[in-house]
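Aim 2, interim progress. The first record below pairs a target sequence with its structure tokens.
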Amino acid sequence: MQAQPQVRFFLGANSPGGFYSLYDQLIDPAQAEEIYILKGGPGCGKSSLMHRVAEAVEAHGLSVEYIDCSGDPDSLDAIVIPQLKTALVDGTAPHVVEPRFPGAVECYVNLGDYYDHDALRQVKGEIISCMKGYKGCYQRAYRCLTAAAQIGEDMRSLLCTQALEEKMAKRARGILSREVRKAGSDSGRPVQRFLGGVTWKGELCQFSTADLLCKRIYELSDPYGLAHGMLTHLAHGAMAAGHDVIVCPSPMFPDRMEHLLIPSLSLGFVSSTPALPYEKRPYRRLRLDAMADSELLRRNKPRLKFSRKVSAALLEEAVESLAQAKAMHDDLEAVYNPRVDFEGVYRTADQIAGTLLARL
């Protein structure tokens, strides 16, 4: 049976400044019914528990938003169940989550209770050995990302002229006039999600999530990171018209927008690059480099080509360091997993799912 498409985002990013967290954007505690904060160390079943709860609620027809781990996109860091105004989240480092309204909204789930502590004490030396070098791999990855980002900024600043900004603003106004209709008197609200990330598997982007939420996709072909200005105009215009928007920052430049989704209009804007192409046929395609000063492009073509090559090589080095960190983490989990009572973990998952489904 073919797997159903799923809404998947990241809330953390491996960025030039280190781990960048958007976990405060997961769900508004003031509006939430319940938030389960999972605590526990490596291999204790946090991701397994969330998968089990997600499967249970999906079997009852509810939708689930999956938040993948930036360190390992095959693992979960959180799930959101919008119809139940509920979330489950791994609240451990590097994305530590603590309650704002403890007891009233958030509750802790301590999966460390399912460790066999006596058995783990017997392999203490293996655990310490696996921990060594793990942080060093991430530090090297972040240094490579910093260098790649500096080169990327050099390329962007070279082409980002006032004339280009005016062209993109004009194009954004045209798109807003055609695509965005008024939806009430209140302004829309933004929520932030990473659509992509730099992971041990390489650079990833969840274009399938954009396709699932938005039937009309504008592809912004953007090899030089120019999209932020246009996307800012589009986001402000959509919110002024009363539409909530999903703002997707760049993992390499978290203060800049890379994608924009407006689910209420089934309208999305995704940036594509040679490294991360948008594979489907878009509703519209805009070449942002074609809006740049053609003379600037011609005169600096060798420099831009060299910069892209060096930046790509640095990204490859960062990915290799992340892969080394992933291998060390796998070794650590291999030590822990046999010494965890997973039946207990699954019982807890079933209890949580039962509690949530009883509210239907």
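The second target in this work package is listed in the same format:
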Amino acid sequence: MNYKIEKNISEPAYIQLYKLLVNDIVGGIYEYGSKLPSKRVIAEETGVSVITVEHALTLLNEEGYVESRERSGVIVTYKGEDFLGNMQSGRLKSDEIAHKNIHKQVGTIKSDNNAVSGSKGDFPFSVLTKTMRKVMLDYGDKILIKSPNHGCTELRQELCHYLARSRGIMVEPSQVIIGSGAEYLYGLIVQLLGTDRVYAIEDPSYKKIYDVYNALGAKIDRLGMTNEGIASDALLKTKAQILHVTPFNSYPSGVTASISKKLEYIMWAKSRNGVLIEDNYESELTVSRKAEQPLFSMDPEADVVYINTFSRTIAPSMRIGYMVLPESMVELFNEKLGFYSCTVPIFDQYVISQLLKSGDFERHINRVRRQRRQQLK
């Protein structure tokens, strides 16, 4: 292990060791399924303490490069296809390296076992608190300022970058609207599109979709489901012009729409000058190695409104959702609803923005997806 740890630089020894190990794991020196040297061996060969080695290994565990197994040691779990976009030629990207330096301000690194209680994705609590501290240090009293109406620029820009690299959705910040959860965004949709048209929803479907549309006076048509999505005959018969679907994992049926059914939804909308509401709830947590293709990016001529939240991927208390409008609706939204103040505190928006920018959010998603795949074996 020919590692040189510099003692006279500001970067902590465990961060230096962490980066050296990452480069060797990504470069294939330590292959998937192989075992790292013991903590004591690493400490002796690098001239650092065992505690320093433990901190570096905690980071590797937390980000899914390795897994500590009782009586087996530290096993490499990194596979290149699980980390698309996080690495480049075996070296950490500059923004990721800069992010790691944040740990200097935090102190002792805690184990990934300390996760957010009750969160579907079990987001590491240590990462969340570290990010909150960084936001307070970086933004200072700016966290007390009122948010712009559509959401802060930083979050909307980072969402555009994230959607482009993870979903192939290419949009501008002007198309992104931030709101406090999916239900709030459903309400905006009804106000935007009006109550003089029929809204079709899946049957069965998430109850609050119906509740919000009904409370605002929208006409609702329930369309029966098959094991591929909404039944074709129901789509043909409905008088609706707006179709609300949850194509990844419809609740409570658990149905995931097939690619043929997604194309059918697209053709349905185009044939009647309609609008698709794509509620992409929990889609990041798929067990597939390839992310689900969203309706939004399948046909540029179809009007699709994309909705997602961070409630399942970070924590239920994170009442932050976002809506992506097709370009054709941006001007109408600004005219009719642009006066609404953003319902998400600016501090929470900065935190999510930093999680996206640093890569912590995507590393967490990759980690959860790998764990789910392993559970299916």
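Residues 151 and 327 are 18 Å apart (CA to CA). This observation will shape the mutagenesis plan for the next reporting period.
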